[in-house]
Design brief:
By secondary structure, the protein is an alpha/beta fold. It is about 40% helix and about 15% strand. The strands form two sheets. Strands 3-2-1-4-5-6-7 form a seven-stranded parallel beta sheet, sandwiched between helices. Strands 10-9-8-11-12-13 form a six-stranded parallel beta sheet, with helices on both faces. Helix 7 links the parallel strand 9 and strand 10.
Length: about 350
């Protein structure tokens, strides 16, 4: 079976969540199936750039301008312009459709693109049960065409042993959906028994609604204790995870929530939301709050800041929870979806890795 994949989003050193997913699936499949030939398709604006990065020996590059020439095509980011002989698409989230997190023009384009991808796909991979439910309800896709395949995470073999600092870390773009305004106000109100804590925000600063968040930071009475770093390299991010004592991610809407797993894998106790896909990812290994209640976020931050035993317990549970999410499992389940789509296995039979 000839398999083609949209590799457009896999390029670069500092990848977005979709980029990390794309690369893990692309390279994981090639590694797991060395006798299989894969075609990596790139959209025109990315093809030349792709030659700067190596690809597996059993993969080749193609330009994505029409119908992919393969028995099966996997759209790794819910975009299917032309239906192939068999088409699988991955849906990461539908927050643009479900909330006020974008311009009206972008929502219209996104919604049409999502509808087209759903209609043109024989099988849909959703990265969480939450996203699967949204695909079913918002796009009217029958459940029989949806498979849930969670993201994975690489758990470090050895965790940093240096003492952690009084740092509350947030990782993600500054945008309305990430709930930064409430996080900042909660940070202002948290009680710390006289200790000085810092709030560090690591991520792009130009997301939708970022102006309101940046304004809240600018006028904050704790402005001198808030660091807005912008986009950071993977090396810088690892250093931040090693220093932080709390990871705060009270996002309003996530299709999965990869930063939560990343923090857990690195032994950072996590505070996150009790809504969207985040409880599905965090399980009982995080302190969960209603993201719409600033007071609740402040109380949770205070509790974590003042209770080292709780932080240590959440760090242990989080590390164990992260180990349950494997990229190898995601790759194997994706391969099973291909086999099912091609009619080689009965529906719903996915391997456990």
């Amino acid at each position: 079976m000839t398999i083609a994949l949209d590799a457009t989003y896999s390029l670069g050193r500092n990848l977005s969540g979709v980029g990390v997913y794309s690369r893990e699936i692309l390279f994981g499949l090639a590694r797991a199936h060395p006798d299989q030939r894969f075609k990596y398709y790139y959209r025109p604006h990315r093809l030349l750039r792709s030659f700067k990065e190596p690809i597996p020996g059993n993969a080749s590059r193609r330009l994505l301008t029409g119908v992919p020439r393969a028995e099966l095509f996997h759209a790794l980011n819910q975009r299917v312009v032309y239906r192939a002989k068999r088409t699988v698409s991955t849906f990461h989230d539908l927050f643009v459709m479900s909330g006020e997190y974008s311009t009206q023009d972008f929502r219209a384009r996104f919604t049409q693109q999502a509808k087209d991808a759903a209609e043109r796909s024989d099988l849909i991979i959703a990265v969480s049960q939450f996203t699967a439910d949204q695909v079913e309800s918002l796009l009217k896709v029958e459940r029989s065409r949806i498979r849930v395949v969670h993201h994975g995470v690489h758990v470090p073999a050895v965790l940093p042993q240096a003492p952690r600092e009084n740092i509350i870390l947030f990782v993600g773009a500054i945008q309305a959906r990430k709930n930064i305004v409430r996080l900042v106000k909660a940070f202002e109100r948290m009680g710390t028994h006289g200790e000085i804590w810092r709030l560090i925000l690591a991520g792009a600063t130009d997301g939708f609604g970022s102006a309101e968040a940046l304004a809240a930071i600018a006028v904050s009475p704790k402005r001198s204790n808030i660091d807005v770093l912008g986009y950071v390299s993977s090396e810088q991010l690892e250093a931040l995870y090693a220093r932080a004592s709390i990871f705060a991610f009270p996002s309003l809407d996530e299709g999965f929530g990869m930063p939560v797993l990343d923090a857990m894998a690195r032994g950072v106790p996590v505070l996150t939301s009790s809504s969207s896909a985040l409880p599905e990812v965090a399980g009982d290994a995080a302190l969960r709050v209603d993201p719409t209640r600033m007071e609740g976020i402040a109380m949770a931050l205070s509790l974590l800041a003042n209770d080292q035993e709780l932080r240590e317990d959440l760090a242990r549970r989080g590390h164990a929870r992260a180990a349950e999410f494997s990229w190898d499992r995601a790759v194997a389940s994706t391969w099973a979806a291909y086999q099912e789509c091609a009619g080689k296995v009965p529906g719903g039979q996915h391997p456990r890795v």
